[in-house]
Structures are given as structure tokens and as C-alpha cells.
């Protein structure tokens, strides 16, 4: 009896031990798989972080970043992993595509440092437009240029009255483009071409140049130049001044002297305000001579004075040529000059009429072809 009870007790103890062992085994398995799952998830996050960094570099051009997460764990949502990803990779957010605004350019110096001074001007070598274009690669279509490293005070339209002077124009462009670029001028060049063979009218073409240049850009300074005059010193700065400017004060044909005190011919410049104050230039000077003296009178009659450079700087060389056909001296010019006070209010930019035929932009200049009419019949001598 005693042995039977002892055997049953031992049997129960053995079953209890087996149950404990089985329970222990189950607990160990649960813990093992739990730890393994956590380690696998951590490893996945680490790899995703590395992949995100690589994608951040390789996808920099497209601006997209890709992250991969282990969603196999129970009770895990996409939102929780996205939140975890933001915490793990805060530097992987898309970068802004905005570029910093450029710094404003400084004002151009009053005396540009690249000026040469006295220049050697000659017209014996052959000149072509192709050569001039190669010499000035920074000049844009229409003869426009603006310095890239500073902000000019003036925006200058250079206006040339023109007819049948193609050879002179090549030399003018050859010399003037480099001079103007060294002077740090923001400029455009306009050739006002009078079509037809009627009497030439220089001052009226200059008025037309002012009107057409105004349509092409916001110019506030206008320089009027004959096509056969080349400055011999690049310190003769082509911009506007407080008073109307006469640049060509010492031409070689006059022995490098001013021919008379009221001379305003060749090359001159006025600001927009000054030009409008004198009602522009006269339209009724047909043929050669007189219009520059009329302009001088308009300036002085409106309370302004002519400014000029130093005679050593304002030297010009003229391209020699014969008198143009249909540009004979105007026999009425002396009478007209004496009446400037009475005619300047009604004859000028306010009374300008013309027919615009063509605007063509070449690499080095803008050509504007116009018809300007004919001179009125001359009074019959009694």
C-alpha cells in the first residue's frame, strides 16, 4: 500500500516537472521569436536609412526621396513608420529649388579704368562687316550692348543720318563699338536711312531717329553723329551731361580747332529732357548746312548752354569724300537761322511727319529706312 502511494506521488511529481519544462520551453520560444523580430525590424530600419541617403544623392536632380519599411510586424501601421522615418532621417527632406537673387550691380565709374586715351585712326586698311562682327562678339543684335559688370547712369541711343555711305559705316562701327564698350556705355546704334534720291535732310532724319529709338527702348540720352566722324580719344565719353553736349569740337578738316563759337555740328548729344525742351531739331533745312546753327540757337534761346570736352580730347578725324549728290548747300539757310526764335515752336519734333518703310536689325546696328518727302518749292526770285 505504501509502495503504491509512493509510486503515484512520484508519477505526479514527474508529470509536474514535465509540465514545468514544457511551460519553460514555450516561454523561451515566445521570448526568442519576440527578440528576433525586434532585431530584424531594427536591421530593416537601418538599411532603409542607408537607402534613403543613397536615394537622396542619386535623386537630387529629381527632388524625390524613397524610404522602405518593414510592415510585417503586427499592430504596425504605415503612419507609425512614416513618423519613425521622419525622426530617423530629418535631413532627407526635399530641398528648396529657389535660387538666391543676384546681387545688384555697382554703378559704373565716371572715369572707366579701361580707357586708352589718344587713338590712332586710319582708313587705309580694307574693312569688312565680317571683320567688325568678329571684333565685337559681345554686341547683340541691333547693335545693342550693356556692360555686364556695372550699372550705367545713362541709356544711350546713337543716331546716324544716312544715305549711300556703306563704306564709311564699316569704319565707324570698327572704331566706335570698342570705344563705347570701354566707356561702359549701355547703348544701341540706329542708322536712319533716307530712301530715294530727293534732297537730303539731316536734321529731319535725326528727329526720326529719336522717335524710332524711343519705340525700341527706354533711352534717356541721344547722341547724334555723322557717319564720317571718328573720335581720336576714347576719353571723350559718349553720354549726356547737365547741359547739351558738343563732342566734335576739333576736327582735322578745321585744323583741330573750333571753327566758330556757335558751331554745334558733327557729333552732339542731348538728354531726353533737353531734346524736348527745344522741340527737337528743325525739319525744314533741306540740303547741306544751317541745321546745326539752328539747333545751337534753340539751345541758347531756351536758357541752356553748350558744354564741350577739352580741345585735346574732343579731336576727330573725318573720312574724306566728295560732296553727296542731292545734298547741295541750302541757299535759304542763312535766312532760316535768323528766324529760329519764331520757328522753333512750330517746326520740330511736334510737327514731324515721315513714312516708315522698314526696320531691319543687323548684328552691329539697327537700320531704319524711311521716306521723308520733298522740300517745298523755292520762291521765285522777283
From TrEMBL:
GO terms for cellular component: Golgi cisterna membrane; Golgi membrane. Residues 245-322 form the Galactosyltransferase C-terminal domain. Residues 108-240 form the Galactosyltransferase N-terminal domain. It catalyses: N-acetyl-D-glucosamine + UDP-alpha-D-galactose = beta-D-galactosyl-(1->4)-N-acetyl-D-glucosamine + UDP + H(+). Its cofactor is Mn(2+). Keywords: Disulfide bond, Glycoprotein, Glycosyltransferase, Golgi apparatus, Manganese, Membrane, Metal-binding, Signal-anchor, Transferase, Transmembrane, Transmembrane helix. GO terms for molecular function: metal ion binding; N-acetyllactosamine synthase activity. InterPro entries: Galactosyl_T, Galactosyl_T_C, Galactosyl_T_N, Nucleotide-diphossugar_trans. SUPFAM superfamilies: Nucleotide-diphospho-sugar transferases. CDD domains: b4GalT. It is a single-pass type II membrane protein. Its EC number is 2.4.1.-. One of its GO terms (biological process) is carbohydrate metabolic process. The chain crosses the membrane at residues 12-33. It is found in: Golgi apparatus membrane. It comes from the Eukaryota. Pathway: Protein modification; protein glycosylation. Belongs to the glycosyltransferase 7 family. Responsible for the synthesis of complex-type N-linked oligosaccharides in many glycoproteins as well as the carbohydrate moieties of glycolipids. This is Beta-1,4-galactosyltransferase. It comes from Oryzias sinensis. The lineage of its organism: Eukaryota, Metazoa, Chordata, Craniata, Vertebrata.
Amino acid at each position: 500500500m505504501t509502495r503504491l502511494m509512493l509510486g503515484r506521488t512520484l508519477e505526479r511529481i514527474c508529470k509536474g516537472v514535465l509540465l514545468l519544462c514544457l511551460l519553460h520551453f514555450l516561454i523561451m520560444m515566445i521570448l526568442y521569436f519576440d527578440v528576433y523580430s525586434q532585431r530584424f525590424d531594427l536591421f530593416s530600419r537601418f538599411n532603409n536609412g542607408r537607402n534613403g541617403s543613397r536615394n537622396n544623392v542619386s535623386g537630387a536632380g529629381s527632388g524625390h526621396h524613397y524610404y522602405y519599411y518593414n510592415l510585417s510586424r503586427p499592430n504596425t501601421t504605415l503612419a507609425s513608420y512614416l513618423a519613425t522615418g521622419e525622426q530617423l532621417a530629418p535631413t532627407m527632406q526635399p530641398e528648396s529649388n529657389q535660387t538666391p537673387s543676384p546681387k545688384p550691380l555697382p554703378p559704373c565709374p565716371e572715369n572707366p579704368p579701361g580707357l586708352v586715351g589718344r587713338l590712332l585712326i586710319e582708313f587705309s586698311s580694307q574693312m569688312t562687316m565680317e571683320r567688325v562682327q568678329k571684333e565685337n562678339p559681345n554686341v547683340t543684335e541691333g547693335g545693342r550692348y550693356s556692360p555686364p559688370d556695372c550699372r550705367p547712369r545713362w541709356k544711350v541711343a546713337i543716331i546716324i543720318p544716312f544715305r549711300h555711305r556703306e563704306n564709311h559705316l564699316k569704319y565707324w562701327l570698327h572704331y566706335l563699338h570698342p570705344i563705347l564698350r570701354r566707356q561702359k556705355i549701355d547703348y544701341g546704334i540706329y542708322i536712319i536711312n533716307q530712301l530715294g534720291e530727293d534732297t537730303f535732310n539731316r536734321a529731319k532724319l535725326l528727329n526720326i531717329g529719336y522717335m524710332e529709338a524711343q519705340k525700341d527702348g527706354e533711352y534717356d540720352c541721344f547722341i547724334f553723329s555723322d557717319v564720317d566722324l571718328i573720335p581720336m580719344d576714347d576719353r571723350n565719353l559718349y553720354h549726356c551731361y547737365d547741359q547739351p553736349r558738343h563732342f566734335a569740337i576739333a576736327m582735322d578738316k578745321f585744323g583741330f580747332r573750333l571753327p566758330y563759337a556757335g558751331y554745334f555740328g558733327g557729333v552732339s548729344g542731348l538728354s531726353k529732357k533737353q531734346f524736348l525742351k527745344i522741340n527737337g531739331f528743325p525739319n525744314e533745312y533741306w540740303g547741306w548746312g544751317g541745321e546745326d546753327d539752328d539747333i545751337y540757337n534753340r539751345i541758347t534761346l531756351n536758357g541752356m548752354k553748350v558744354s564741350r570736352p577739352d580741345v585735346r580730347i574732343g579731336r576727330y578725324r573725318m573720312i574724306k569724300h566728295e560732296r553727296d549728290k542731292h545734298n547741295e548747300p541750302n541757299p535759304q539757310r542763312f535766312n532760316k537761322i535768323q528766324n529760329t526764335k519764331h520757328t522753333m515752336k512750330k517746326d520740330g519734333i511736334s510737327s514731324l511727319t515721315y513714312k516708315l518703310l522698314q526696320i531691319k536689325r543687323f548684328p552691329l546696328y539697327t537700320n531704319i529706312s524711311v521716306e521723308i518727302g520733298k522740300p517745298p518749292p523755292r520762291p521765285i526770285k522777283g
